[in-house]
Amino acid sequence: PAVRLLLLQRPNVDAALVERSLSDGSPEVRFAAARRLAQRGDTRARSVLTAALQQHHEVAQAAALLTALGEPHLEELLHELELPPDPHMDPAGAAARRVAVARASMLLPVASRAAVLPRLARDLAPAVRSALLDAIAEAGGSTPAPLLPTLRVLSEDPQPLVRARAAALLARALHSSVRTDPDEDATQAAD
Fold first, then answer.
1. d(Cα 117, Cα 120) in Å, to the nearest integer?
2. What is the pLDDT of residue 129?
């Protein structure tokens, strides 16, 4: 399964391989294939993602991807944030579930992120806030306007590393959204 998982993670993976992998014997390989298809908007991923959700495997990612495919699974994702810590689970385990939600948050449609991002940005665990920044940074490209309030909250974080990373992402987002006048650029270059 490890080799098949690596193949599915390649940027230019063969579409036929992804489709065949949906029926692989390994649940991890099936989930990786479903993730690739769901990220492309392919609804053939639904059955594997629904099974993962029912089996409590990769709940955060499965719920986020199903929501992105138009199914109402945002509640499962929010439930991961609100679950009280299991008395048998250490606090780090509870934070690990919230970290998984933070990592999956950027898989959500932009409109659905509003229900999740403010909670993650104010989470008590620095690892959760850091994972949220990782997810935003990994999303690449320009930062959509709905993410700016989250970055502003994180840019005032009590943790210096979180605060600095958020400020850098916020500055990059604001800088990329500013359009300069080409004549002004030419004047500045001439000076």
1. 5
2. 92
